[in-house]
Design a protein that fits this description.
The chain has about 325 residues and is of the alpha+beta class. It has 13 helices and 16 strands. Helix 9 packs parallel to helix 11 and helix 11 runs parallel beside helix 12. The structure holds S-adenosylmethionine.
């Protein structure tokens, strides 16, 4: 499907990508592969794969070390194996299967699984998911934590809190509580009560440039004022979250946008504000990541910003994402 970018967005993407811009456009004009994440709170990846394959679904596990991540390549027209042809799933079919209703898997775009891989929450830890709805990453964290430890899953919008709650219930999450508050103000009130976290995920509200492949509306809604406004919201969330992180605790900041104002500029601002209290960490992910950029328009940024990851659709056949990880050292 052809995508019309607004002229300013097109100009900015060309500035970011240079001669790779046509590859980027080609990539976002196609549907991304359909990915699901096995919910190990309910079933093992082997059993889930067997169940789905017995219905004719063709399942690929692209990463040896992450068997929970599965691509549904399509379904066979015959279950006998021979002579069957692979056809695409119908729209919405992934969300209608019995296995989905039972919470055996979560339909989640592959790039969206990466922030939790970067944060690596462990059983027994105390974790804050500051912008949690609809819950793809809360449920992913609960599964990584084997339902042991505590997650506070926060969301500011009531309608989205309800979706978060229903996804957590469907997936059998038993170690999380939900709060409904503006993120920065929640951090301040937790701070006053002396509550501190081992890990915090800020999957921030953003302009969504990375989701153009699946959300055609994003391109229509995009405007530079929103980008600039969101940058302020994101900085405020990070500043307040860092205050309630334990010593040696870690924060992952992620967005599904390419806009440097919402990504590297936020990271640069935080590095400057917290100076020797935090350090930015290198992130290891099972996909191609590009370094954060150290300058945008006429602004030069701290060279440590390079340690953040830019994920472009054309690199891994995913949506676009940005991830940075900080550790509190003082
Ligand atoms: N982490 C979620 C997931 O993986 O399913 C997606 C989060 S989405 C990118 C950002 C969420 O933050 C939205 O649900 C939005 O309503 C919420 N939000 C927006 N502003 C917020 C704020 N100031 N404090 C907390 N949540 C906020």
């Amino acid at each position: 499907m052809r995508i019309e970018l607004k002229p300013l967005l097109e100009e900015r993407m060309k500035k970011l990508l240079g001669k790779e811009f046509p590859d980027y456009i080609k990539s976002i004009e196609t549907e991304p592969p359909r990915s699901i994440r096995c919910n190990t709170l309910k079933i093992s990846p082997e059993k889930l794969k067997m169940r789905l394959e017995s219905q004719g679904w063709k399942i690929k596990q692209p990463f040896k070390d992450f068997p929970k991540i599965m691509i549904v390549e399509g379904k066979l027209t015959t279950l006998e194996g021979e002579g069957g042809e692979l056809e695409p799933l119908n729209p919405g079919e992934l969300g209608r299967s019995l296995e989905h209703v039972l919470g055996y898997y979560y339909v989640q775009e592959l790039a969206s699984m990466l922030p939790v891989i970067a944060l690596a929450p462990k059983p027994g830890e105390r974790v804050l998911d500051l912008c949690a709805a609809p819950g793809s990453k809360t449920t992913q964290m609960a599964s990584k934590m084997e339902n042991i430890g505590t997650i506070i899953a926060n969301e500011v919008t009531l309608g989205r809190v309800k979706i978060l709650a229903s996804n957590m219930e469907r997936c059998g999450v038993a170690n999380a509580m939900i709060t409904k508050k503006e993120g920065a103000s929640l951090c301040r009130s937790l701070g006053i009560q002396g509550i501190r976290f081992d890990k915090i995920l800020i999957d921030a509200p953003c302009s969504g440039e990375g989701t153009l492949r699946t959300s055609k509306m994003t391109s229509k809604m995009w405007n530079i004022n929103t980008v600039k406004k969101l940058s302020g919201v994101q900085k405020n969330l990070l500043i307040n979250a860092l205050e309630i992180l334990k010593l040696n605790g870690e924060i992952v900041y992620s967005t599904c946008t390419h806009a440097p104002e919402e990504n590297e500029e936020v990271v640069d601002f935080i590095l400057e504000k917290f100076k020797d209290e935090i350090k930015i960490e290198t992130i290891k992910l099972p996909v191609k990541c590009r370094e954060g950029i150290c300058g945008w328009e006429d602004k030069k940024l701290d060279s440590q910003v390079k340690k953040s990851c830019r994920i472009y659709p054309q690199d891994n056949d995913t949506e676009g994402f940005f991830i940075a990880k900080f550790k509190k050292i003082k």
